[in-house]
Structure formats: structure tokens, C-alpha cells
Amino acid sequence: MSDFIDKAKHRAEDLIGEAKEKIGNVTGNDDLAAEGVADQGEAKVKKAGDTVSDKVSDIKDKFTS
């Protein structure tokens, strides 16, 4: 269950980053836009970790089944 929650948090972080970037661009706030881009980058790294974790779990399940 915590895996699902982590994935949801990472997706939310990505969406918040997108919103910050767009708001920053519309308002001319370069710092906010840059923060949004950074947030998206962090979320993408976390989501990649989720994918690796899922693949490792799949492989583990194949060997233990």
C-alpha cells in the first residue's frame, strides 16, 4: 500500500512542478518557473526509482513462485 502512496506522491510532485513552471512563465517569475522545473526533475527521478523497484519486485516474484 505504501508503494501506491509513494507513486501518488511522486505524481503529485510532478504536477505541482508543472503548475509552478507554468505560473512562473505566465507571471514572468523566473525563480518560480525554475523551481517548477527542478521539482519536475526530482519527481521524474523518484518515478524512475519506482519503476526500477517494480521491476526488481517482478523478478523476485518470478524466482520465489
Describe the structure.
- The chain is mostly helical and 65 residues long.
- Helix content is 94%, strand content 0%.
- It is built from two helices and no strands.
- The chain has helices spanning 2-27, 30-64.
- Helix 1 (2-27) runs antiparallel to helix 2 (30-64).
- The radius of gyration is 16 Å and the shape is elongated.
- The model has no long low-confidence stretch (mean pLDDT 93).
Briefly say what this structure is.
This protein is mostly helical. 94% of the residues lie in helices and 0% in strands.
Q: In whole angstroms, how far apart are the ends?
A: 21 Å
Q: Which runs of at least 5 residues are low in confidence (pLDDT < 50)?
A: none
What percent strand?
A: under 5%
**What is the molecular shape?**
elongated
What is the mean pLDDT?
Answer: 93
Strand elements, count: 0
Any idea what the radius of gyration is? 16 Å
Order of helices and strands: HH
Number of helices, counting only DSSP H or I runs of 4 residues or more: 2
Biggest sheet record: none
Residues in helices, as a percent range: over 70%
- SS class: mainly alpha
Task: List key phrases describing it.
65 residues; mainly alpha; 2 helices; elongated
Secondary-structure blueprint:
Blueprint: H1 2-27, H2 30-64
